[in-house]
Amino acid sequence: MQANNRFRLFSISSVWLWLGLFALLPNLALFLVSFLDRGETDFFIPVFTLDNYSRLLDPAFIRIFWDSMYLASISTLVCLLLGYPFAYLLARSSKRMRPWLMLLVVVPFWTNSLIRTYALIIILKTQGLINKLFIWLGLADGPFSLMYSDFAVFMGLTYTLLPFMILPLYASIEKLDVRLLDAAKDLGAGTLRSFWHVTLPLTLPGIVAGSILVFLPALGTFYVPEILGGATNMLLGTFIKNQFLVARDWPLGAAASTILTLLLVLLALIYRMSSRKAAETPLTEKGKKKGAADA
Amino acid sequence: MRKKLPYAYMWLVYAFLYIPILVVIIFSFNNARFSTDWNGFTLKWYDLLLKNQPLMDAAVNSLLVAVCAASLATFMGGLAALCIHRYKFTGKKILQGSIYMLTISPDIVMGIALLIFFISIKVELGFITLLIAHVTLAMPFVTLTVLARLSEFNENLIEAARDLGASEVKSFVHVLLPLTAPAVAAGWLLSFTLSLDDVLISFFVTGPSFEVLPLKIYSMVRHGVKPDINALSAIMFGLTLFLVLLAQFLARPKKKFLKED
Hints:
The structure holds 2 protein chains of 2 kinds. The longest helix of chain A has 33 residues, at 59-91. Chain A has one domain (71-294): MetI-like (MetI-like fold, Orthogonal Bundle). In chain A, β1 and β2 form a beta hairpin. Chain A is 77% helix and 2% strand. Chain A is built from 13 helices and 2 strands. The model of chain A has no long low-confidence stretch (mean pLDDT 87). Chain A has helices at residues 2-33, 51-55, 59-91, 98-110, 113-124, 129-137, 150-175, 178-186, 191-220, 223-229, 236-245, 250-280, 285-294, and strands at 36-37, 45-48. Chain B is an all-alpha fold. Chain B folds into 2 domains: 1-42; 53-225 and 232-251, Orthogonal Bundle (MetI-like fold), CATH 1.10.3720. Chain B is built from 11 helices and no strands. Chain B has helices at residues 4-27, 44-50, 53-86, 92-104, 107-120, 127-151, 156-163, 168-197, 202-205, 213-221, 227-251. In chain B, α1 (4-27) packs across α11 (227-251). The radius of gyration of chain B is 22 Å and the shape is globular. Chain B starts with a helix and ends in a 10-residue tail after the last helix. The chains are: A mainly alpha, B mainly alpha. Chains A and B meet through α1, α3, α4, α5 and α7 of A and α1, α3, α4, α5 and α6 of B.
């Protein structure tokens, strides 16, 4: 018993120690620095100020913030619209084919995003694949470039993050009990109606999870906009990076990233609510088990 | 027709996911420096890559960090999964919550948080700081992978081992570990790739004394398309493909010893 307790103590304390030291403490430090002043020689000095947050109200930053929110939202929406039918078909594909179809989604999920972003340059640039295709189809009569634009950044975010949308969607759609859809059909619901009242509410956690996994990285990345968008449009990730490496204004960068963390907390709460809601409907495993017990 | 159409949609999405990367791979064998036209087969870009000493050094550094980080992350992450699955303790909910939050926390936030932390305690940025950062990045993903495996595992086996007189540690080593080994291995491979692919965190927590491959690639990519980057991308893609296949092979479910329905 003594040895067991020692093992228990060892595992729990080492996990806590690592996370406390290298995850919680650094995040706490980041939060604290957002309230500190920047020093002449030091990156930050222990003087309390709210100045960093008021500096974020500057129109230039608000512009960056909204541009980023806009691009990240559009990318998330397009990933969802592209990914939902795809994940649905994947979950309904034959048992024999599914592992292979699944593998084809997992490979890009694991592939270096930097390399995938780079691969898009070849498609989007002047004389690139899209350009050549358009000329071949007679839709364009000369070289054009899709690079260094909002469109290119949007393409980059959608392309690199689509697998992060598909996998959680697939997980939630696969769990969906087909009998519920049959029941809805028997009760006279049309395809659209049963989708709206059965499929959608039950797969909502997957939708929220996928959206979080696309939206937050889209806001926080700096290499996708820097490679595909060039210097024309600065986004939140680049802004934060620049405060740390170029402007050397750590407190301002910390304040900007605190906004990102607040968004994370908000989205995590939305996820909790959505999965609770899905679990509470009488259509789930829990509800069914209760029904079976009652009978 | 009704059956064909959905599949056509799936293949379109696959085409979207794969065409850019396939084009890069094809052009890595193209005997032309600037042209996007096919100009004959060559391996010279791969040769050029191997002769690029700073790049090779960075690649070795990256592999070193990835192996160390993956091993440590697998140990810590597996331990965390075990604690969550097996024990009741104060703050368990908080621990679970932190692990979930870490998996969705934006990388850039983790990068700058660790940068502030390391600078505050006056540690020089380099191998150690990068290692710590990558372990912290990968560990929650290992925990989730192993937890998923533990949840489908027949609890009675551990109890049986305990009844037969095995200590807690012994029952873990002889019963739990062999059964969760596939998930542990998959977790290691995932951690390895996470470490090898990471740009956003490495950018902040490594110093000039310890250069890594993704950052090298990043500075190369910013100057546009070059055939040797195509070759490097092709190699990285090949490595990823190999690792994914290995992970899938290891993680395929075995019916034996699992929970009965």
